[in-house]
Structures are given as C-alpha cells and as structure tokens.
Amino acid sequence: MPRATDDRSTDILPDPVANVRRALTEAGARDTVTVLTDKVPTAAAAAAALGCDVAAITNSLVFELDGAPLLILASGAAKVDVRLVASRLGAGKIRRAAPDFVLHHTGQEVGGVAPVGHPEKIRTLLDESLKSHDLLWAGAGDHNSMFSITYEDLQRITEAKEMNVR
Predict the structure, then answer these.
(1) Which of 6, 17, 34, 131 meets the CB 3.0–4.6 Å disulfide criterion with 141?
(2) Residue 94: helix, strand or coil by DSSP?
C-alpha cells in the first residue's frame, strides 16, 4: 500500500497540487491533500491506496462541449452517459477532451485532474450518486495526490450543478 506524506509545505509540491491546496483553503474547505508515494491515476488504484470504496472516488472528467470544457465529477464506479448529459443540458454532442485540451483548461494532466485549482472557472456537473458517501476522495492535481471532502462541500466549492450522469 502506498504511503502518504504529511508535509503541508506548498513550496515542495508540484504547482498543480499547490494550486488545488490554495483553492481548497480559499474556498473555506479543509486542506486534506494527501500525497501518496505511488501514482494513483485511476479510481481503482486510488481506492486501493486509500482503503475506500471505488464509488467514493470522485473522478474529474473533462469533456468538450461546443469548444468549451465541461467538467463532470463522477463516481469512480460509474460510467458517464454523455448522451444523457447532453440531453439534460439541451446541448449538442459531448465528447471526451484530448489530453492537451485538458491540460490547457485545467493546468493538470489527465489522470490527476482535480475538481478545483484550474486557471479559470470551468462549468461543472456533480454526479448525484456521490451523495451516498459520507466522505469522497478526489484527485488533487497530479497522479500522486488526493484530497478528501464531503459531497456538500464539493458542491459548494465547485458551484457544480447536481445531476444524474449515468
């Protein structure tokens, strides 16, 4: 099992993780960023490392909708139904964003994207199925970092629209 570091110093963290930590604290959320010794680029890997249910992992999935980013915060146990989401938004085709598009709009690489800490605010949807968990875990800006948060705080700090995305 990967070990976590307990260092709270932002000057040794990669910039994307420091940005997430700053965004959390500026939004009034607790700084719960945990840096693991091994990479956790998937929900399954993160759940195994953190000892939680994969459904409590909040995947930050970036899609492209009409040339703009759409961030969907979905349970690690779910597959987003993009046709359903497009229909509910009254939108055209939603497609998974290319890695360079994700990096440009989030400042974070695919596999480590966080719900916060982006250069500019991104339109965000929050998977309602995540409500069933007392504590959620989300990527914190790179492949080694995660943070814990409640559903309510995640919705508040991201200003996400709650939606059934599957």
Answers:
(1) 17
(2) strand
Q: Structural domain of residue 35, as residue ranges?
A: 11-163
For 84-133, the DSSP string reads HHHHHHT-S-EEEPPHHHHHHHHSS-TTS--SS--SS--EEEEEGGGGG-
> What is the number of domains present in the chain?
1
Q: Using an 8 Å Cβ cutoff, are 38 and 136 in contact?
A: no
The pLDDT value recorded for residue 40 is 94
Give the residue from 122, 144, 159 showing the smallest Cα distance to 29. 159
End-to-end CA distance of the chain: 31
- Give residues with Cβ within 8 angstroms of 145, minimum separation 6: 13, 17, 20, 33, 34, 35, 36, 112, 139
- pLDDT tens-digit series, residues 116-129: 999 999 999 999 99
In terms of Cα–Cα distance, which of 154, 161, 162 is closest to 27? Answer: 154
Count of alpha carbons within 13 angstroms of residue 99, beta-carbon side:
4
Among 78, 76, 82, which residue's Cα sits nearest to residue 64?
82
Global confidence as pTM? 0.92
CA 43, 147, 41, 141 dihedral sign is: positive
In a domain, 5, yes or no: no
Residue with tokens 């939004």: 27
- CA-closest candidate to residue 147, choices 123, 122, 112: 112
